[in-house]
Each structure stands twice: as structure tokens, then as C-alpha cells.
User: Which sequence fits this backbone?
């Protein structure tokens, strides 16, 4: 069952819909009438912002939206980075979140995986900002 989705875009704002980049010339509202995958520009992480393990994972998932031709490569990169993150973090909250992300990706729910990762960014930031002695306990 498909549902109608309304996207409000500001002038110059971009949205990725099924891999195509759409830019609004002026303020507009798009109505998506069938099932489509889309990514709003405000949720796009730039390469220079991938400074932490979770942001790198997010970028790999995001790449599957933005570059459908590179989706297989991005998925493989995601798997490698996920395995490394699961070995690196000791925080139960991060580990639980990463396992949720893994399940979401396996179910093809990439947008949910990105939302889960975004919600973990503040937790990761707090861990990385902590003194080294506290990090090992996190």
C-alpha cells in the first residue's frame, strides 16, 4: 500500500528521489503519489563531515540513495565499517543501535537505518569527547 508524501522545498534546495537529484528553483511542494525512496538535502552528510565511525556508516548508507550505481560498493563498505564499529565501541547504547541498523539494512529500510545512526551521533560525540580513561569504560 502506497501513501502520499508531501515534501516542502525551499528555493535552491535539493532532494534525491530514487537516485535522481531534483532541485527546486523556487519554494515548492512536491507530492509523491507512489512508493519512492527519497533523501532530503538537510539529511545529506558531506564527505568532510565523516569524521567519526558512525558518520562514516551513515555516509555509506546515504551513498546507496545518492549514487544507486555505487550501491553495491557502498553496501560492502557499510558491512566492513559496521563490523569494525561493533568491535570498537563498548557502549551498550551504541552496540544496540548498531545491531538495529544492521537489521534495518538487511530489511532494506535504509532511511530507518540513517535515522537510527543520526540519533546515535550525540552518544558517539560524548564518548569521543570523554577523557581516554573514561572512553575505555564507555
Assistant:
Amino acid at each position: 500500500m502506497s501513501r502520499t508524501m508531501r515534501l516542502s522545498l525551499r528555493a535552491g534546495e535539493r532532494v534525491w528521489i530514487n537516485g535522481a537529484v531534483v532541485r527546486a528553483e523556487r519554494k515548492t511542494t512536491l507530492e509523491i503519489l507512489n512508493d519512492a525512496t527519497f533523501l532530503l538535502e538537510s539529511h545529506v552528510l558531506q564527505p568532510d563531515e565523516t569524521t567519526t565511525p558512525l558518520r562514516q556508516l551513515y555516509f555509506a548508507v546515504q551513498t546507496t540513495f545518492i549514487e544507486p550505481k555505487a550501491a553495491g560498493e557502498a553496501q560492502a563498505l557499510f558491512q566492513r565499517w559496521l563490523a569494525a564499529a561493533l568491535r570498537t565501541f563498548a557502549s551498550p547504547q551504541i552496540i544496540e543501535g548498531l545491531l538495529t541498523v544492521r537489521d534495518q539494512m538487511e530489511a532494506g529500510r535504509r532511511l530507518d537505518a540513517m535515522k537510527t545512526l543520526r540519533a546515535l551521533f550525540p552518544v558517539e560525540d560524548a564518548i569521543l569527547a570523554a577523557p581516554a580513561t573514561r572512553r575505555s569504560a564507555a
Notes: The helical segments are 53-66, 71-88, 92-106, 110-129, 132-135. The two ends are 42 Å apart (CA to CA).
